[in-house]
């Protein structure tokens, strides 16, 4: 499952969003544990003076991973 979203704020906002996605997924699908990978990211300045951070995320079921897909 691929999803995109944007964030403004401190760097820990991305970590909190990833944890929120994982918790919601595990609540809906308790039989499947998942990891969230950041596929790509960009940063843009806005007219209002804030910085927008755009992230493309991929939700991966751990059961779907092969041993060679896991980074050690």
How many helices does DSSP assign?
A: 1
Radius of gyration: 14 Å
Largest sheet: 3 strands, antiparallel
In spatial order, strands of the major sheet run 1-3-2
CATH topology: Dodecin subunit-like
Q: End-to-end span in angstroms?
A: 23 Å
How many individual β-strands?
3
Q: What's this, in brief?
A:
This protein has a single domain, classed as Dodecin subunit-like (2-Layer Sandwich), CATH 3.30.1660. Helix content is 24%, strand content 40%. It has one helix spanning 12-28; strands at residues 2-7, 34-45, 51-61.
Structure description:
The protein has one domain: Dodecin subunit-like. Helices cover 24% and strands 40% of the residues. The protein has one helix at 12-28; strands at 2-7, 34-45, 51-61. The chain has a 3-stranded antiparallel beta sheet, with helices on one face. A hairpin with a 5-residue loop joins strand 2 (34-45) and strand 3 (51-61). The mean pLDDT is 75.
Write the layout of secondary structure elements.
Elements (H helix, E strand, L loop, with lengths): L1 E6 L4 H17 L5 E12 L5 E11 L11
Antiparallel strand pairs: 1-3, 2-3
List keywords for this structure.
single chain, 72 residues, alpha+beta, Dodecin subunit-like, 1 helix, elongated
């Amino acid at each position: 499952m691929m999803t995109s979203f944007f964030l403004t704020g401190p760097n820990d906002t991305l970590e909190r969003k990833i944890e929120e996605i994982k918790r919601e997924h595990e609540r809906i699908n308790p039989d499947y544990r998942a990891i969230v990978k950041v596929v790509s990211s960009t940063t843009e300045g806005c007219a209002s003076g804030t910085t927008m951070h755009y992230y493309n995320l991929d939700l991966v079921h751990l059961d779907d991973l092969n041993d060679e897909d896991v980074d050690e």
